[in-house]
């Protein structure tokens, strides 16, 4: 049972495979792949009948779902959960920057106190798609005494949330949108979540609420958001992901005073490899021991 | 025992006085003043031999110390501790913005991933002057599992800090400066803390460390900081207070890519009055009951 790291070899990931007790090998002789450095379009080069398991490097794997690469007979694991802490940290950074208007101050270039500075203390935070990132965010928010409203697929109560609704509970989703000072989008990108935050959802939000998207750009209707911000119908938007992505030069979101765009850096390269290496080591150990793998993809659900 | 709120009357503060069971009155008939809306230069207009107690609205009261207004026979209380949570929140916002480079992204106006994004998880945070703000910050940092190094006046261990040194322990201060990924300045402005962070202190800091000042501008040597930033000898500086303050238009700190200046908004007006009202109510209650007051100023220490 040899494991191949590729198409791009990463020493830290190879070391993680060895640390778990497995042997490295070429793609041809491997029974498992630790995929890194390319998208699904190159998967056919590496796939063969001896491959049992593929560890993907990202938490969001919609490009693999769409490519049809998740074929029967091979187990795929995403990195879901691996980056939850670092993405949650970035989410908190965006929330605090927005509520303290640091984006405005960074741009001002002079001593000018903006109006409407607010606080996380006592705020209500709604999380659309409260999975690993949501749980990590709830832990970071705990000292602020916030009220947490959560939506997830099952509606099963999320630890630390005051209310949890199932994603198909329209009344619950509405209650989250109308009641939150921050609406955090952290759901996987699937057919069901495309444009989850559309003009109607934005219209339900409080006029001083912030929208924070750390999931995928496809979950928010960009044009509707641009309109809502321009009309002053939202406190602001902090987006780590956009649609289109990358956001083209001159896009209105770059010049919108109420918007802060981070260019998909919630899980930056500098923090990604060490976190991924820990997951690779753990899943390799589980693979060798025949134990359940972490982050196994459900092709039917699409994540 | 009547209490006067002035020179500027603030309904929320008057309501706090009443809520504590005291009667409002003119300055002439009052035995206590809740001071708001002016500096010590107007105190002589209000002071008379019947005044026993003056509640000041700020946590930092160095202008009152310097003015000589803290005369014997009158008890003064500052608002120290009242704003600790909101200042700590702002401090965390600045730390996260710096480590995630949100200031760079806010200014970029295009999709460009900066280098060197880092994390608070596992970082070491040094707090120079770990009083109420420092303790509140430690509570907010707890979920990040940071290591906290603290310096305070007495050297008495600070809850949640891994090490605490006394301010006059030069070796301890050096250890904090050399070992911290973030150096947070939160000490009162006194003769002893003027230019506490000078060229020598900055030279001891890690080349990728951030300096965060939420105390007073006088505690940092601005010119030395500008030099260190320009030379790339620091990760960055996030300053809520500056020397001079306000920072004049065209000051190098406004154009320095590694710097983020918030214009003394750690305790913004929008959050100040409600917090001060709670303190006024509690101290009025204590005043009526003859109990020790919160934040009583020690004229010898200067805070």
From TrEMBL, chains A, B:
> Does the entry feature the keyword NAD, yes or no?
yes
What SMART domains does the database record attribute to this sequence? Semialdhyde_dh
Instruction: Read off the PROSITE patterns from this record.
Output: D_2_HYDROXYACID_DH_3
Please tell me whether the keyword Oxidoreductase is annotated for this protein. yes
InterPro entries, per the entry:
D-isomer_DH_CS, D-isomer_DH_NAD-bd, NAD(P)-bd_dom_sf, Semialdehyde_DH_NAD-bd
Domain Semialdehyde dehydrogenase NAD-binding intervals = 124-222
* One Pfam family here: 2-Hacid_dh_C
Reading the lineage from the top rank, the first entry is Bacteria
Q: Which Gene3D superfamilies match?
A: NAD(P)-binding Rossmann-like Domain (3.40.50.720)
> What's in the keyword line of the UniProt record?
NAD, Oxidoreductase
Protein name, entry field: D-isomer specific 2-hydroxyacid dehydrogenase family protein
